[in-house]
Every structure is written in C-alpha cells, then in structure tokens.
Design brief:
The protein is mostly helical. The chain has helices spanning 2-20, 37-49, 71-82, 108-121.
Length: 122
C-alpha cells in the first residue's frame, strides 16, 4: 500500500512540475515599418478609391491576346509540318523499329508556287 501511495505521489509531482513550466508573456511586439502613419493613411485612401479593387486579374474573362508572330510565317510553317512525310511516325514508336518513309509528298513545291502566285497577283 505504501508503494502505491509513493507511486501516486511521484506521478502527481511530475504532473505538477510539468504544469508549472509556463511561457513568459513579452507583450505586444513593436511594429516595424519604414513608413510613418500619414504615408500609410494616404496609401490606404488611394487603395480604397481604386476602381475594381476586389476583383482578381482574369476573373472577367480572358485578357486580350497580342500576337508577336507573323501570321503568314505561322501558316507556312503549319502547312509544311502538315505535309511532312511520316510526320506522326518516329523511330521509338515500336521496339527495335526503323522508320522507312512511305510517302513522297512534299509541301515545298506547293508552298513555293503559292508564294509565286501571290507575288504575281500583286
């Protein structure tokens, strides 16, 4: 019986010691700012008066796209790629395979003819 009382007292003393360790309160930390109160107030007034201040970018639809590529060059590249022989076949399509071209179609003569025809029409 004495052993159980001793163990109970030891357990309670450990709990009391653990509860006695509390953190110290340092109070409110000082604000760190490079601006004074008037500058912050002026910035807040400007932000509050701004139009559409609570609307995130892109929430009203896509933004206007401005292309930087020449449309004629992009079209010519697309035509050349579409008419390339075996454009969808690569050597790694199947294990241990070789690509043997089965198509002899080239876009170059047609593209050149279109360019000459457009130049002659001008």
């Amino acid at each position: 019986m004495k052993t159980s009382h001793i163990l109970a007292a030891a357990a309670l003393s450990i709990l009391a010691a653990a509860g006695a360790q509390a953190e110290t309160y340092d109070g409110v930390q000082a604000a760190v700012s490079a601006k004074n109160r008037d500058e912050v107030n002026a910035e807040a007034v400007r932000a509050a008066a701004a139009a559409d201040q609570n609307i995130p970018r892109g929430s009203r639809g896509a933004e206007q796209f401005k292309s930087v590529a020449d449309p004629a060059a992009v079209r010519a590249q697309a035509v050349a790629t579409a008419n390339a022989p075996d454009q969808n076949v690569v050597g790694g399509s199947k294990y241990n395979s070789r690509v043997i071209s089965t198509m002899n179609k080239s876009a170059e003569p047609r593209v050149q003819a279109q360019k000459e025809g457009a130049a002659a029409a001008k």
